[in-house]
């Protein structure tokens, strides 16, 4: 009994790992690693063109420019990925290095596990009920964000939100209490 159930569980785990880390996923990880090192090969640039639709010549020019900038982030960890995003967001560098930024952001938004996606779909049935079936996509996105990111919403200072709302809405349109 133990051997047969153990082998089945072990087989499922191995199949899950093989599915998650297939050859295409590993190729993408290695390509983005080379991009973060600012040393992409021609094959890496062509692969990014196929996967993300990035112009390989443009990103090559951007990488040459980035090599000449002092104090750029170095390394290949996920922390470095976020440092690059912060670095490019400062002083509106995202417009200068648009293709490089697009690669990093698209890679950062790929979910590591399908759990977050499944959790979002399960929350969707709670947020969008039969009674709330006619809401716009913008409202649904906002409600889903609030529902999924409950940790962030618990830290909101309501007095600051009320003050910001007062500034945004003209005094003529406010209701008197």
UniProtKB/TrEMBL annotation:
Taxonomic superkingdom: Eukaryota
Record-level Gene Ontology MF annotations: protein dimerization activity
Organism of derivation: Acyrthosiphon pisum
Pfam families: Dimer_Tnp_hAT
This protein's name: HAT C-terminal dimerisation domain-containing protein
Annotated HAT C-terminal dimerisation domain residues: 97-152
